[in-house]
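Render this sequence as a predicted structure.
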Amino acid sequence: MIYPPQKAKSPGDPTEAVAPTGNPNHLEVKASHIIKVCLAIRQGKIRRRWLVECGYRHVCGYDIAPDGPSPERERFQQVLLLGRLREAIARLNPQVPLVACEDALQQVLNLDVPVLLSANRAFHSLLVNGVPVEYQSGGETRGDFVRLIDWEEFADVPSPQPLSRRARGDPSPAGRRVG
């Protein structure tokens, strides 16, 4: 796995890339954690309340629909909420020029991979590793990775607890009513 370089935090050279610290698989662990949480939510194993406790906000799909009171997409087929993604890219990558941030957004929107499984892998790579971009700075071409997710934010998030069988309306271990 290729890890995106992290910016040095020393006052010496802010453009120097440094290797990730701690667990060498920290990005993989966090990405798999997010994937497990998403699957658990879809399967109804995690309550929405837990996400709210972690700082997420529930928004009704009708409100952000193209014909809703606060539309965030132009049509129903549009999967990504571009305004939110654009804002997150800018917030997570203040050191990257706006042109490079827009390039990263276009790379996410246009994976240019015709096969669904390959497209999912390509998107997963961008999500975990960051989107590679190049831009001009001080007369030089620089390369960087634009982050789409703040992995540090998830470091302190407690693991979700699945609902009990009774909370899911499943009283018996085998999933059938006894009696």
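Summary. The CA atoms of residues 35 and 156 lie 17 Å apart. The first strand starts at residue 6 and ends at 7.
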